[in-house]
Specification:
Chain A is α/β, with parallel strands linked by helices. Chain A has ten helices and 14 strands. Chain B is an all-alpha fold and 253 residues long. In chain B, α3 runs parallel beside α6 and α6 packs antiparallel against α9. Chain B has one domain. The chains are: A alpha/beta (309), B mainly alpha (253).
Chain lengths: 309, 253
């Protein structure tokens, strides 16, 4: 797959000396959904703002489908759509006019069929003649997306698209993103919600303190770094872990009614067989066995903690 | 040039004007009428003709200039400050437009609005006073140049302003006094000699004088000086806008 976005040695330092981005290298492939994860102040928004032309880079190069964002800014920006984190909309304008404006601003001739299609897909068609200020917060967020899509971009940035929206709307957003992906739009989203990245991303990048710590396919990442947890539920309850099982590094579950064993799925031997045999030999009766995969959130927290250490 | 984008900005800004059409028109018409009633009717009836022009007619060019200048500045400064204030400027900065196109869109719309209002006041004036326009083409030229250069000035103010107070500060403290002391309601020749000399440092004197010349052929300063003054002011504003464009001052981080 060719890279639709190519960032090389990108650095952004402010006049007070604060380095928001440190030598960022990132390639985004065409048609993928890329989730950029990171704590507050990690540089997610600065990175997006720099690609979109809102912030000027201190050094490095960025190109979109081969167009340099500085030398060939018109061609590059025509391909990009941006949904900002904060809701920023002209309050007194009608929904349809503000979306039409965005299309014109990006140099595309007026095409009502395209605007109608976008508004319908975002469930905004019925609200098209409403003033923006009359809409709910969730609807305003949809208007931001409609504006970003009005010029039919090939690369869409969603900066915290579901921050502060209810669960139902979040699911709707995910459906919209999936829809766009089907149309071949490349999507880069930043998020605090790990479950969001887990649910919709193809690849995940973790950024902290202006540095990209990791870029990996989501599935492989979870497989590589995923720890699994085995919970052995017992018929009776224990006060402490029996000495015969001490070498397995177990934890006692709630009420002493279960034993918890953490293992690495990547290791050749997980130690499960031996554990279960030892449990039986210790005279304990099994009621049930449950396994749990660690979530992307656990992986993320581990990574960021390691970086801070 | 991205003309589609310029048109989009221009139309979007004009839409703001048309949304509040009644206010946009009623307010200047009302205030002009009040000026005519007070200065033209009540006080003006006791003032002699100035160089053969009745006082009511004499103040028309100054009144139009007064409104056109303040409207150009407030429209343009608000036009660009508002997106900065509510955050919608992100869209302008991320769009495939350069700064010149943004300026043409915003300044063009602000100047158009001011021009509209100027024409409305002119039409209103005909209901109150008997007057004629000696040099209509020059009148249009002065009006358009004033609208454009003061809209540019307003645009710079809007970029500079960090809050609403600053947005009001310059028009209130600098522009209004300059316009009032610029000969809107009197001829500079009516002032004591010392004040006549001081007035020559007021750029607005040249603009109002030139504009009044286009109506009645009367001028406080030579018409060439008036044209040079407006060209000079326009040049300075363009230079500042060009500098903002080059440096991204107060726009891009």
């Amino acid at each position: 797959m060719p890279a639709v976005l190519n960032i090389q040695n990108l650095r952004k330092a402010y006049s007070d000396g604060f380095e928001a981005l440190k030598n960022i290298d990132l390639q985004i492939e065409e048609g993928e959904i890329f989730a950029l994860l990171g704590p507050n102040g990690a540089g997610k928004t600065t990175l997006i703002s720099t690609v979109c032309g809102i912030t000027t880079p201190s050094s490095g190069s960025i190109s979109v489908s081969g167009h340099d964002i500085a030398a060939d800014f018109r061609a590059a920006r025509r391909l990009i759509g941006l949904v900002p984190q904060e809701i920023a909309l002209e309050p007194f304008e009608k929904v349809i006019n503000t979306v039409r404006f965005s299309r014109g601003l990006f140099g595309k001739p007026r095409k009502d069929a395209v605007i109608e299609d976008i508004l319908k897909r975002l469930s905004l068609w019925d609200k098209r003649d409403n003033q923006v200020r009359e809409l709910s917060g969730g609807m305003k967020r949809r208007v931001l997306i409609a504006k970003a899509l009005a010029h039919e971009p090939r690369l869409l940035f969603l900066d915290e698209p579901t921050a502060g929206v209810d669960v139902e709307l979040r699911k709707d957003m995910w459906d919209i993103v999936a829809d766009l992906k089907r149309d071949g739009v490349t999507i880069i989203l930043t998020t605090h919600y790990i479950e969001e990245a887990e649910a919709i991303a193809d690849r995940v990048g973790v950024i902290a303190k202006g540095e990209i710590l990791l870029v990996e396919e989501k599935d492989r990442l979870m497989q590589q770094m995923g720890k699994k947890e085995l919970e052995v539920q017992l018929s009776g309850s224990l006060d402490s872990i029996p000495g015969a099982l001490a070498h397995h590094n177990l934890q006692l579950g709630a009420d002493g009614a279960s034993l918890i064993y953490v293992y690495d799925t990547n290791q050749e031997r997980t130690g499960i067989t031996k554990l279960l045999n030892d449990v039986a030999a210790a005279g304990l009766t099994l009621r049930d066995v449950v396994t749990r995969q660690s979530s992307l959130e656990d992986i993320f927290v581990t990574l960021v903690r390691e970086d801070a250490a | 040039m991205n003309w589609t984008a310029i048109r989009a900005i221009y139309m979007f800004e004009m839409a703001r004007f048309f949304r509040t059409l009644a206010q946009s028109f009623v307010s200047p018409v009302l205030s002009t009428s009040l000026y005519f009633v007070v200065f033209g009717g009540a006080i003006g009836s006791r003032i002699d003709e100035i160089d053969g022009v009745s006082y009511g007619a004499f103040i028309v060019p100054g009144l139009i200039m007064l409104t056109v200048m303040t409207q150009s500045i407030s429209n343009a400064s608000f036009g660009i400050y508002f997106p900065k204030f509510i955050g919608t400027i992100y869209e302008l900065l991320s769009a495939p437009v350069n700064f010149l196109e943004i300026v043409i869109g915003y300044v063009g719309a602000a100047a158009t609005k001011a021009l509209f209002i100027g024409v409305i006041i002119l039409i209103t004036s005909f209901f109150f006073v008997d007057m004629s326009i000696a040099h209509p083409l020059a009148m249009i030229l002065f009006l358009v140049l004033t609208c454009v250069s003061f809209a540019l000035f307003g645009f710079i103010l809007g970029i500079w302003a960090g809050n609403f107070e600053q947005l009001q500060l310059v028009p209130l403290l600098i522009v209004t006094p300059l316009v009032f002391l610029g000969g809107s309601f009197y001829s500079i020749s009516m002032l004591p000699p010392i004040w006549q000399s001081i007035s020559m440092f007021n750029p607005v004197v040249y603009l109002i004088s030139g504009f009044r010349w286009s109506f009645y052929g009367l001028a406080d300063v030579p018409i060439v000086a008036s044209l040079l003054a407006i060209a000079f002011f326009l040049g300075i504003c363009l230079a500042v806008v060009w500098w903002i464009f080059k440096t991204g001052w107060r726009i891009r981080q």
